[in-house]
Design goal:
It contains 5 helices and 2 strands, in the order H-E-H-E-H-H-H. The chain starts with 8 loop residues before the first helix and ends with a helix. A two-stranded parallel sheet has the order 1-2. The relative contact order is 0.19. With 85 residues, it is α+β, with helices and mostly antiparallel strands. It has helices spanning 9-12, 34-43, 61-64, 68-71, 73-84; strands spanning 20-25, 49-54.
Length: 85
């Protein structure tokens, strides 16, 4: 992941020190497949980082699926409350 200006985005992830939550849709095969999300999270420099995989949801489904309200968003809200408390 090197930009047209030569900036190495993967290398820059090592400088991220804030808590990092990544959420991947288990059914996402196009925009952000689980394997690609794992590669990103592995490169993040934060000591507190997590990748949550929501089975059966696509990239779009993580936000728009009615099921996301029950299986995805509560976990994000809990992580935010624990992290920002």
């Amino acid at each position: 992941m090197v930009g047209t200006d030569g900036f190495d985005y993967f290398a820059a992830l090592a400088a991220v020190r804030t808590p990092y939550l990544a959420v991947a849709g288990g059914s996402d095969r196009l925009f952000a497949p689980v394997a690609a999300c794992r590669h990103v999270v592995e490169r993040v420099g934060s000591e507190r980082k997590i990748l949550t995989i929501e089975a059966g949801l696509s990239h779009r489904g993580l936000v728009l699926s009615p099921r996301a309200r029950d299986v995805c968003w509560p976990g994000i809200a809990t992580w935010l409350q624990e992290t920002l408390a």
